[in-house]
From TrEMBL:
Source organism per UniProt: Lacibacterium aquatile
Protein name from the UniProt record: N5-carboxyaminoimidazole ribonucleotide mutase
Recorded name of the encoding gene: purE
Listed EC numbers: 5.4.99.18
Top-level taxon of the source organism: Bacteria
Family: Belongs to the AIR carboxylase family. Class I subfamily.
């Protein structure tokens, strides 16, 4: 595997069902990435190490997913100059509204690009990461254009019958 340029981090194994969609999207675009469980609360030292070494290890973008009291994206952003995209994972108790508000309400000066709750957010975080990387990678820009063209071509003109 080539040197990872995107770091996907998540607060728990339970976040992987959501964050796997970010990983699959990066893989489809042939973007090398790494996936790590890094909890702001349960493994704070791991978070500090990840964030403070991310840039010199060659990462260009971080995608951070967390649920509930979702401090992971913001704390990571506070310790790295890399762009950080936050994915609010859908929580059981509050359906991810807690995650969304925890991630989106950053104080001015420490940005986290916050995506939608759940699967759509994970996919779009990967696509945003791809768009950032494509600014300096013409081959990736072509693959991203092709990905979008395929998506457009896959939309039917008319709805089909819903299977019972
Ligand atoms: C957060 O707490 C994680 O990001 C996860 O979404 C949530 C629940 O974690 P588990 O109790 O399932 O490990 O830190």
């Amino acid at each position: 595997m080539a040197q990872p340029v995107v770091g996907i981090i998540m607060g728990s194994q339970s976040d992987w069902a959501t964050m796997t969609h970010a990983a699959a999207t990066l893989a489809a675009l042939q973007i090398p990435f790494e996936s790590k469980i890094v909890s702001a609360h349960r493994t704070p030292d791991r978070l500090v190490d990840f964030a403070k070494t991310a840039k010199r290890r060659g990462l260009k973008v971080v995608i951070a997913g967390a649920g509930g009291a979702a401090h992971l994206p913001g704390m990571c952003a506070s310790m790295t100059p890399l762009p950080v995209f936050g994915v609010p994972v859908e929580s059981h108790a509050l359906k991810g509204m807690d995650s969304l508000l925890s991630i989106v309400q950053m104080p001015g000066g420490v940005p986290v690009g916050t995506l939608a709750i759940g699967k759509a957010g994970a996919i779009n975080a990967a696509l945003l990461a791809a768009a950032v990387l494509a600014l300096n990678d013409d081959a990736l820009a072509d693959r991203l254009d092709a990905w979008r063209a395929n998506q457009t071509a896959a939309v039917a003109d008319e709805p089909s019958e819903v299977q019972a």
